[in-house]
Amino acid sequence: MTSTPERPPFGRGLPGNRWDLLEGMRPDPLPTVSVIVVHYRQQAELDRTLAALARQTYPADLLEIVVVDDGSPTPPVVPDGVTLVVQEDDGFRVAAARNLGIRSSTGAIVCFLDADTSPSPSYVAEATRLPALAPEAVVTGRRRHADFAGLPVEAPVDEAGPAHELPEPQWLVDAYDRSHNLLDADDRSYRHLLGAVITCSRWFLSQCGGFDESFRDYGGEDWEWSHRAWLAGAVFAFVPSAEAWHDGPEWAARADGNGAADADARDEEARRRARKNAETLRLADAVPVAGSRGRAVRSRSVDVEIRLHGSPTAAAAFVTVDSLLAVLPMARVVVPAEVAPVFRCDERVTGPEAGDARTPPRVRLDVLVPLRVDSEGASPALLAVVGAEGANGVGVGMLGSVEYVVAGAVALRITSSRAAIRERRWGPGLFETSQRSAPWLTLLDPEPPLAAYLGGWG
Length: 458
Known about the structure:
With 458 residues, the chain is an alpha/beta fold. It has helices spanning 43-54, 94-103, 123-133, 157-163, 170-178, 202-208, 221-231, 263-286, 314-327, 375-386, 417-426, 450-455; strands at residues 33-39, 63-69, 83-86, 109-114, 117-119, 137-146, 165-166, 198-201, 235-247, 304-308, 332-334, 349-350, 363-367, 371-373, 399-406, 409-416, 432-437, 441-443. Helix 9 (314-327) crosses helix 10 (375-386).
C-alpha cells in the first residue's frame, strides 16, 4: 500500500460507501478492461469460460483476456487472441497467479475470474461500470452455481445455468440482503467479496497492493485482500446483474453426503474441517478485526493504534497508556521517544521509530493531552466506536472520526484509516466528524499521583 495516497487520474470520490449516487450513470468513454482467469487442470471448464467471454456485450476491441496457469502438468490450450502465461507448479498459488495476471495485462479496469466460473453476456459491462466511474469501487459479482456436467462447453451459460441451477450459499444471500447489496458495508464486509468475481480499477490495485502471495493453500487470499482494500479506501458494492456461473456446488456443499455412519465420509469431513481451520488461523493473523482475530491471542496485524502526542511526563504517560489498554488490550501504542523506556517490557508499546505495517490499523486513537480513562464508564462508549460492526462505528457509513471533548477542548480523537486515506486523496467532506462529551475521561496533572492510581485509592 502506498504511504501517500494518490489522487486518482479519473472518476470521482464518493462520500462514505455511497455507490448508489452513481445509479443510472454509465462511463463515457468506456475504459479498457483486462479479464484475468486463473486456471489449474480444468481445460473443459476453462473452455466454457472463454466461450462465455467471447459472447460478452462489452466491445471486443476494449477487452483483453489473460489466462494464468498455476503450473498444470499440461498447459491449457487457449484460442487466438487470448494471452496465456504460466507459473511454476509450487503449491496452490492463486494469489501469485492473480498478481502475475495483473503484471501481464494492461486494462484500466481488472476483472478476476476463476476458470470454472463462466460469466453471463453482460457480466463485464455490469461489473466494470462502478470502478470506471469511481476508481475506489470494488465490485463483487453474483456467483451462481450450476451442474454443467455433460453439457457442451459452447452452451450459453445464461441459458444452461438457470436450467441446471444448484443452490446458492444462503449466508451470502442473507448478507447481501441485510446490507442492501453492500451499500451498508462495514469493517466486516470483506467476508462478502469473492475472489472469483471481483472487479476493480488498476489504479486502486496500485494503491492497496496485489494479493498476498504467502497464501499457498486453498482459500483466504481474497478475504485478506478485501480487508486490506477496505482499509485503503475501497467502496464495496455487490452487483447482482454481474452474474457468473460456477460449475458445481459451493465449497461447503461438496462433501460426501453419506452421513457419519460412513467412515470415508467422516474422514473427508475431518480433512475439510482441517483445511478450513488452517484458513481461519491464517486470516486471524492477517485480519485483526473482532470476529476474525483471537479473543485474547494477538495477531500479527494491528486493528487499533493509539498515539500519544506532546511531551507527557513518565507518570502521565504511564497512567494514560495503562488506562487505555485496560479497555483496548489488543491495541498497539506509539509513545514519544522520551517516555518509551517506561514501557520497555510491554511489546504492545513502541516508540515513534516503529515502522508502518503493510496493513494500516483500522482505527487510530490520537491522545492529544495526558488523560485517564475510567474503564467502567468508557467500555460501552469507546468500544462501540472502535468496534468492527455497528451503524455508528468509525469507518462505517458516513462517520469518519469522533472527537471527545473535555473542559472545552478535544482530548481524544478516533479516526477511521479508511476515511483518512480517502480524504487525503479527494479533500475533506467525504466523511463526518462527531464531537461528543466524555465523562469517563479525566485530564491528568503533569505529575499525577501514580501510587494512588496503582493502589486504587485515587
